[in-house]
Amino acid sequence: MNVFAKSFYEYRRVMKAVKLFLMISGPGIIVMLADNDAGGITTYAATGANYGYHLIWFLALLLPVAYYVQEMTVRLGAVTKRGHAEAIFDGFGPFWGWFSLLDLFLVDWLTLVTEFIGMTTALSIFHVPPYLTVIGVCLVMGFMVIKGRYWTWEKIALIFCAVNLIYIPCAFMVKPSVSDILRQGIIPNFPGGFNNQIFFFLMANIGTTIAPWMIFFQQSAVVDKSLQEKDIIWSKIDTLVGSFFTVIVAIFIVIVTGTVLKGQPIESAAQASQALMKINSHVGTFLAIGLFDAGFLGAICISLASSWAFGEVFGWAHSLNNKIKQAPWFYAIYFLTLITAGIVVLIPGAPLIMITLFVQVIAVTLLPAALVFLILLLNDEKTMGKLKNNLVQNIISVTIVVGIIILSTLYAVSAIFPNLFK
Amino acid sequence: MIQQLKIFARQYKRFLSGRLGKIAEINRKYAHPRLAVKKSTSLVLLMLRLYLLFLVGLLIYKFIITLNGK
To answer: Can you give the residue range of the structural domain that contains B39?
Structure first.
């Protein structure tokens, strides 16, 4: 074989691999970028405003945390062809099954309300009335599933994922000092010492990294996409790419607010974009668009996580490849959670701040159980065969899960008793 | 009107009993969990139950002190 033929063969081989990756990728990238939802954007914006670039190193540490947890859902979904809700019923019986399903439904619904809060607040900056935002979002989300094709839904979701990267040009537009970022952000440090406030911010960042719906969503998406055991390697890369982007987006948000708004009392992403608009209108506008997009991405994944879980357990048709007539209950849950959550935001005087705090507490009632079940199922040789967790994977995942449980529990406790860490 | 209400009530009752029947069927289907047999697994599940009780206790405590206006 001459050099030309060899190069052509290599080129074809690489292109084939790229095409295969593009076909299989999706759930990992979508779940990871949806992780940067409205609540996440607010946390990162506040982190940058309070500590500048000093906590960037901590955000970088969240990459392996997110990857290792979500990678387990890929393996479990591809091997068992079951979503997480059904796997819990099967592995641990009705008590834990119903607990997980109903708690997931409640957590998802409350989180969906917070996503609507983020979306309506973001668009109100552009003088769009909240009711129009809610109607528009419900219509777009209805359009995404009405075709009855998983691929259509995934492609549209990936477009919204691409919009989530808007924070990267934002960071370049505020002209941060690269040497300051490297000097302050790369080496682990705690500005002002390890006090209660910084501990609260670390907990908040961990709390936004892994949410219960992510575990249920990705496992169900892997099943709905009919991924096989041979596709696991590509799905792992998909998850790794997603984790990389989620951390990059988080870091760039911190760079934006850390450069322009450092020292200002920022409590929400909407407040950050309004403050930025006074300094640089383009950056402020991008931040608001990003906030809307983050809420939307969160909403499309969260509403699906609930309906997939109910469909699996009740044995209803529950695929995005089904049309509404073929899977009426699946879509009924999808639209029910969506529309009711949207309506709550429109009710004058609704306790939205309480809901925002409450969601963290309820999420913590489900997260440890979902994570522990994940590890136990991944260690079951009968279910997983040769794809079960090995010793190294167990050490890493148990360490991560114990860390997440401790920090997210403390975060929830701090939401119930706000003065505890102040 | 009363006739229509009766028909609606009958249909609703049938729907409800169908749903409850489905729940009972799910409970039967998963009555024997596959994994919770090892001692270590049972211990982990016990710890999860205690953890949940702890969280519920905290929420009840918060609820009571909020009611008392502290």
So the answer is: 35-70
